[in-house]
Structure formats: C-alpha cells, structure tokens
Write a structure and sequence with these properties.
single chain; 201 residues; mainly alpha; A middle domain of Talin 1; 2 domains; globular
C-alpha cells in the first residue's frame, strides 16, 4: 500500500515536471516566433538588445536585406560591409553544421559561401574554427565527386551521401571545438565593438 502511494506520487511529480517543461518549450517557441525583426537597425536598438538576443537580432536584420528568390543571395551578401558578411556567413555555417554537418552545409545554398568562411571566422576572432573551415573546404574539394555521387535530389540520396563521408571527422572536430571556442560569444563581442557597421543609415 505504501509502495503504491509512493509510486503514484512519483508519477504525479514526473507528470508535473513534464508539463512544466512542455510549457517552457511552448513559451520559448512563441517568444521566438513573435520576436521583433528590424528591417532598419539603429544604434539605439543594438544598445538596448541584450547579448542573449543580439546575434539573432542582427542576423534577422541582415536576412531582411536578402532577395526573396535566393538566386542572388551571394551578390547581395557581397554588397554588404565585411563585418556584416562575417556575421552572416559564420552564422550560416554554425546553423548548417549543427543541423546536419558539413555535408549539409556544402549541399545547401550555404555552400556558396564556403571559400569566404575561413576569412569570416578569422574576422570575428574564431581562429581555430577558421582553420577547421579551411581544412573542410580542402577535403570537400578533393573528395567532391565521392561526396555528391548519391545526391540526386532525393531525400534517400542525400541520406546515403553521409555513408563513408570524409567530412564526418571534421564534424566531430567542429562539435568538439564548440566547447573551446564559443563562436556566438565571439560574434556578439565583435558586433558590440563594430556597431557602426551593422546599423542602417
């Protein structure tokens, strides 16, 4: 009897924890969806934005400047200031690799910025990641035919392209480096010290 009460209490506690976690997740998703996106970024907005959302705020602002059709993204990004390019390009790299590794990074539109990525990372002070991106580029170029041979536009082909992919070890190094060289902190510090390059005149 006592054991049964204890088990029920544990189930109730576990259920409350799950409900609390689910509510927190839903709230954070709602906050993200309803975040302000500025097509015109001012020094005042940057100053008032906490570090926790600064990077997202700047990236969102840069994204509003991209063409809708994505066919001219590269030319548009190249028309920006070097600091803007650095934040955008390094953000895209981290987002893509965290989501699907370097294989996904090169497969998607993001791959068009690959040759610019080491310099972008260097500019924000991420020297080890810059070196890793340089090595990833070399591996991709050397093994491109092997890497893309199954990428026929289908989900199955893309999934198969991960098999024996030489970029896998680079992915592991990238994830390991995240604990040693915090890219987001470096990006935030860079934005704070180069505000004039990110505000819209």
């Amino acid at each position: 009897m006592v054991s049964g009460c204890s088990e029920q209490r544990n189930k109730d506690t576990s259920s409350r924890r799950t409900d609390t976690m689910n509510a927190a997740i839903i709230k954070s998703v709602d906050v993200f969806k309803n975040r302000p996106i500025y097509s015109k970024l001012t020094a005042g907005i940057v100053a008032a934005t906490p570090d926790s959302t600064l990077l997202q705020t700047v990236f969102d602002n840069l994204s509003t400047k991209l063409p809708r059709d994505q066919q001219h993204d590269y030319e548009t990004v190249m028309s920006w200031t070097k600091p803007q390019q650095a934040i955008y390009i390094s953000w895209v790299l981290e987002a893509e690799v965290n989501n699907g590794g370097f294989n996904q990074y090169y497969f998607n539109q993001s791959g068009q910025f690959a040759d610019l990525t080491p310099d972008a990372l260097t500019l924000v002070g991420a020297m080890r990641l810059a070196n890793l991106a340089l090595r990833a580029n070399e591996i991709y170029k050397t093994n491109k035919e092997q890497i893309i041979r199954y990428q026929d536009g289908s989900l199955e082909g893309f999934a198969k392209s991960y098999d024996d992919n030489p970029l896998g070890t680079i992915d592991d190094e990238f994830y390991d480096l995240q604990g040693k060289e915090n890219l987001q902190k470096l990006q935030i510090a860079y934005i704070r010290s180069h505000v004039a390059y990110f505000i819209d005149k």
